[in-house]
Amino acid sequence: MSRTQARTPARAAARLAAVQALYQHEMEATPVVRLLNEFHQHRLGATIEGAEYAQAEVDFFDDVVRGVLARADEIDAAIAGKLASGWTLARLDKPMKAILRCGTYELLARADVPTGAVISEYVDVAHAFYERRETGFVNGLLDAIAKEVRV
Asked: Taking a C-beta distance cutoff of 8 angstroms, is the pair 148, 104 a contact?
């Protein structure tokens, strides 16, 4: 897959939706099948309260959500290993954990997506939730994980 194919509006929408779905899963413990179905039926490409959601690459969205949940322990260990001394995963707020988990999953499991695309896409997702300092944190942490898992 070329760089341009790894960064498309449909992939960007899938990544943002995956972060939202994983946030919802953590907040409400929504079962995966119901969670995916809810996003397929009511969120991906829908208009909600006047906001239009972009059409997402559904298979990619499903892969990221399912992959993060299936490999949660491995992903959380990779993230925790790169946090500053005295920081734990529990200290991160839920949207930040969802962003880092999705990015880490792609770095671990989606060799078809270039490292730079993964990092810049999740920095873009972080901009939807945070200011510059936090987006820099996403960039630095995912870069550190990439240097370890993508040799």
From this structure: no
Strand partners, 47: 52
The pTM for the full model equals: 0.90
- Cα of 3 vs its chain's centroid, Å: 18
- Is residue 135 within 8 Å of residue 95, measured between CB atoms? no
E strands, the chain, are 47-48, 51-52
Residue (of 122, 89, 91) closest to 105 by Cα position = 122
What is the residue type of 63? D
- Taking only the tens of pLDDT, the chain with its 151 residues reads 444 456 788 999 999 999 999 999 999 999 999 999 999 887 787 655 555 556 789 999 999 999 999 999 999 999 999 999 889 999 999 999 999 999 999 999 999 999 999 999 999 999 989 988 899 999 999 999 999 999 7
Query: Please, is 27 exposed, middle or buried when counting C-beta atoms within 10 Å of its C-beta (0-12, 13-18, 19+)?
Result: exposed
* Contacting residues for 139 by C-beta, under 8 A, at least 6 apart: 119, 123
